[in-house]
Amino acid sequence: MISFWPFELKVKASVGQGVWAAVPWLAFFDPLITETATKGFYVVILINPQDETIILSMNQGTTEIYNEFKTKRGKSVLRRRAKDMSDRIPEYIQGFSEDTISLGSDAALPEGYVAGHSFGKTYKAEELTEEQLSNDIYKMLEAYEVLVNRGGTTPSDVMHEQAESMDVEETRKYIISRRIERSPSVRKKVLQSKSLKCESCGLDPELDYGYRGKPEHTPLDVHHAVPLRGLSEGETRRYRIPDDFLILCPSCHRVIHKQDDPSDLGKLKSSLRFKIAREVGIDQY
Length: 285
Prior knowledge:
The protein folds into 2 domains: about 1-150, Metal Transport, Frataxin, Chain A, CATH 3.30.920; about 185-280, no CATH class. It is about 35% helix and about 15% strand. It contains 10 helices and 7 strands. It has helices spanning about 65-70, 70-90, 110-115, 130-150, 155-165, 170-180, 185-195, 205-210, 250-255, 265-270; strands at about 10-15, 25-30, 40-50, 55-60, 120-125, 220-225, 245-250.
């Protein structure tokens, strides 16, 4: 059933390597946020073998936080961000609980999950039905999608500064578009499927700078040019590679985001006040 749900997610699980893990888990990752349980935020199913309970949780990776803040302060950071996450999508946490979870272990990994827990639900194993778990996972993944669209754990002032706008909806659209553009998997696929030169001014890193590296490392940007599909809440997000993207130099990319319509390549081209030297017949050195 999960394979037919309208979510673009990666699913991973762990029961331990060689020996059983203190807390076996199964997690759902949005690739725009993370593809690993060590960083970002994600939906995870945790098993407490001692209490024979199953916990469905909106949670966070601890390793990245601990590396920056160390363990003690890192737990405080995780708890603060957990509250920020639930506060950002209050209407989507109905039916779930923000109470602290119990995993029956004081090991580092379980304690990290406890600190990073934002909201969820705990079930007694003998009372849980497949239908109930399936329905709750679906609701949780809907909440996850909305949380991603609303900026996740990024503070509002940071998002407004990046978007150079105080309009909430415009800021959210900008942030999610930038997440798509900067996704390593998206960038690599787009650059491998299109000509590696700016589609606006014509800058060609190979001809103009002598760049000979891998396509994904080229000094060009991937621009998500088509309005986000499914940005309306309750709908799924979709984009097509390479159809929905432009390849632009950093300068043209910055300018197109200043336009009223950031998908209007024609307007961007018409605003150019220069041409690449080879296009006007000037010899290159």
